Predict the 3D structure of the following.
Amino acid sequence: MHASEREALLAADRRHLWRPYTSSDDHESMEPLTVVRAEGPYLITDTGERVLDGSGAWWCNNLGHGHPRLRRALVQQAETLMHCSMAGTLHEAATRLAQELSEVAPAGLTRVFYSDDGSTSVEVGLKMAFQYWQQNGRPERKRFLALPAAYHGDTFGAMSVGGVEAFHGVFESLFFEVFRPPSPAPGESFEPVIDALCRELERAEGEIAGVIVEPMIQGAAGMRVWPAELLRRLYEATRRADTFLIADEVFTGFGRTGPMWASDHANVAPDILCSAKGLSGGVLPFAATLATERVFDGFRGGKQRALMHGHTFFGNPLGAAIAREVLAIYREEKILEHAAERARELAAGFAEMAEIPGVRRARSLGMVAALDLGEDGYLGEAGWRVQREARARGVQLRPLGDTVYVVPPLNIQRGELASLLRATHDSVASALSQA
Ligand SMILES: Cc1ncc(COP(=O)(O)O)c(C=O)c1O
C-alpha cells in the first residue's frame, strides 16, 4: 500500500469508524496499525512489518491467525451452505458440532444452544436459568449471584451480572438486582467472596435462579486468578441449594487456562456453560451455551414453554464448520499438550518480570499471564505506557489500565513466545524506568 493510500484510509477511518472502548477524541488521535494479513501469532502491516499479537485478537485467537485448516474448512463450507435458519431445518455442521461439543464438555452438558458472541451466550445462560424456574414451580427464584468485578459481556443481562464499575457504571440504573460480595483488594484472597456467596446461597436458597462465575480467572477485571478449591466450594454450595451454576467459559474455555475448561481445574460440572472465543477459532462470531438434560427438560410442553430466545444466525454453518475444525485440530495437533509446555515458559517469563522494579504483582494460569504496575485498575495509565514501548519493539499489547497481560495462541512456537516475553520484559522495564 502506498503511503498516500494509507493516509486516505486512515482519514476515512477517523472520519467514519467508531471504535469499541475508545473515546471519540482518542479515536481521532490514535495511530492504528494498518493490518493487511495475519498468520500465526503475527499481524502483518501494509509496510510488511510483522507484529506479534500479544492479546490474541481480544483473547479469541487460540490457534493463531489464518490457520490453514480453518481457512480450508471455511472455504469448503462456503461452497455448499453459507447460511440457513434452523427453524424446521437441520444441517450437518451445527448438528455434528453439538454432538462433538457435548463429547468434550464437562460431564452432563449434552444440549447446545447457539448464538453469536460471548455476551449473547451469557444472555442465553441467564435466560435459561431464569425461565426454567419460572415455569417449573419455583417462580420466586429470580435472583442471580455473581462475583465482584465480573465481566460477562456488554449486553444488558451480561452487564447486570458484571461488576466492573469502569465499564458499566454508567448503565447501572438499568440493571436487574444481583447479589455480589465486595471485591477483594488486588492480590488478596477470594475466600471472603466465596464465603459470602455460600452464605447467601444458604440464606436465600428459595430465591436464587443461579450463580454465574468466570471460573479460575476473571479476565477483564485484570486477569485476577482465584483458586480451584474455592470454585469447588461454591459448586458444592449450589448443589446444596439446588440451583444452577453457570460457568462463563467464554475466555477460559478451549484450554486457555490449561485443561479444556477452567471448570476442570476443580472437577466441577456446571449446569450451564457459555463458550465463544476459543470455539470460534478467532475466525467468525460464533457462540454456544451448553446445558444439562435437566435444564432442557424444563422446556418441554407447549409453545409457551420454549426457551424464548433466538438469533438470525443461530448455528450458522460457516461458524459451526470452523468450530468443528477447531475441535479436530485440538485433537489431532495435541494443542493442550503443546500449550502445557509453553505455559511453563510463560510462567517463568512473568515470574522474572515480577523482579522489575515497580512491578507490584505477577501471575499466570495456563496461557494467560499478567503484571500489575499500579493500583488504579482499568483507568490507570501504566499499561498504556508499556503498550507504546511494546509497539516500538514489534509487539501489539492491549492493557487493562495498570494491568499488562499476554494471551498468546496456544500453538505459539517456543521462539515466538521467547520473543514476546523478551519484548514484554523490556517494554515494562523501560516504561517503569521513566515513571
Ligand atoms: C468471560 C467473558 N464473558 C463474556 C465476554 C463477552 O464476549 P464478547 O465480547 O464475544 O461478547 C467476554 C469478553 O471478553 C469475557 O471475557
Notes: The domain at 81-332 is CATH 3.40.640.10 (Aspartate Aminotransferase; domain 2). The mean pLDDT is 97.
